[in-house]
Structure to design on (358 residues):
């Protein structure tokens, strides 16, 4: 008996779609259960959070973490320790006392606020409920800080700073609601640019920005979608919101390393690895600055800076990087298709591809 290949493929695709729908439904439900632990009202009315934020003048940066990201965060603090005024303009939003203690034991003058959410204590795995819930919390924190009338940067600690972000660019204009970091780097194809990376971005206070973030939270709490892909839908809606993109000369992604390494950006975000794999990768890039006993090695920071400026950062190969390159190539192909490409650039995206197939 001959097998119908077309029928077999269609049945496999149908099975995968149904399986993905069920998985997505279960994860979104688990996310919303988790979100009960960090409601907007609880954050807005937290007097300790209000007090910590009020102590920081001007636009500041926010770094979120639990104990599993403490080492990465200490590496970031070592990277920026010599940059005047940077630590004073950072708010560390920790999810447990362990990470709080580790940060303050090395840098006792940091601005640290701890909010314990039991559902966010484990190591995050891309695409799982805790990972998606973490970014749901990030959106609620953004909404709370906007309720305080503040403009600020949302930052990730897996980013190497060659120069201080606060001196490189001050977002003083109020014509946009958000200034988003772009995927890729200067040498990326046009289909890769103008897409939110979602690691380091600026939020400008206004009532319209508050509406944008309210809408973002609604999307995140109802659909299995990353916040970069959700915010892309709103930013591409004509006449609703004004979203700006940060130039690659200021912030680039890891792809810069795999280009010609010219025009070194001020910041480079080292995405693409998870767990201990990210630390190992940073070490291989010569961007790990903590010695064996955990102390900050300033000379290692200087060497990494010279390495970037000389364009001699090692190019590494890993399963994570290969996976991302396949996704990027697939996304660029879909974006270039007539008619469908425009729809995909608004409603699809690299993060969504990752969620659905990996």
């Amino acid at each position: 008996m001959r097998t119908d290949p077309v029928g077999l493929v269609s049945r496999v695709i149908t099975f995968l779609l149904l399986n993905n729908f069920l998985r997505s439904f279960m994860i979104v439900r688990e996310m919303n259960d988790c979100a009960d632990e960090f409601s907007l009202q609880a954050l807005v009315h937290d007097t300790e959070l209000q007090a910590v934020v009020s102590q920081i003048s001007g636009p500041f940066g926010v770094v979120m973490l639990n104990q599993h990201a403490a080492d990465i965060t200490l590496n970031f603090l070592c990277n920026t320790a010599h940059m005047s005024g940077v630590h004073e303009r950072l708010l560390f939003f920790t999810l447990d006392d362990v990470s709080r203690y580790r940060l303050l034991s090395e840098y006792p003058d940091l601005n640290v606020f701890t909010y314990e959410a039991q559902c966010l204590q484990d190591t995050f795995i891309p695409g799982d409920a805790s990972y998606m819930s973490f970014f749901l919390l990030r959106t609620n924190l953004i909404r709370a800080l906007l309720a305080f009338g503040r403009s600020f940067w949302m930052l990730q600690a897996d980013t190497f700073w060659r120069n201080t972000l606060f001196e490189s660019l001050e977002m003083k204009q109020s014509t946009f609601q958000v200034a988003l970091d772009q995927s890729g780097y200067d040498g990326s194809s046009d289909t890769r640019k103008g897409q939110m990376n979602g690691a380091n971005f600026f939020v400008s206070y206004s009532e319209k920005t508050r509406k944008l973030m309210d809408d973002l939270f609604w999307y995140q709490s109802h659909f299995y979608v990353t916040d970069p892909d959700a915010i892309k839908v709103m930013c591409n809606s004509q006449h609703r919101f004004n979203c700006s993109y940060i130039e690659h000369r200021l912030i680039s992604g890891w792809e810069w390393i795999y280009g010609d390494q010219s025009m070194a950006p001020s910041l480079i975000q080292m995405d693409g690895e998870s767990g201990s794999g990210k630390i190992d990768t940073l070490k291989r890039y010569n961007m790990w600055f903590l010695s064996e006993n955990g102390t900050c090695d300033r000379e290692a920071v200087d060497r990494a800076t010279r390495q970037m400026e000389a364009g001699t950062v090692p190019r590494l190969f890993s399963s994570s990087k290969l996976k991302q390159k396949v996704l990027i190539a697939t996304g660029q192909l879909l974006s270039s298709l007539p008619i469908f490409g425009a729809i995909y650039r608004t409603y699809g995206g690299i993060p969504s591809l990752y969620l659905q197939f990996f």
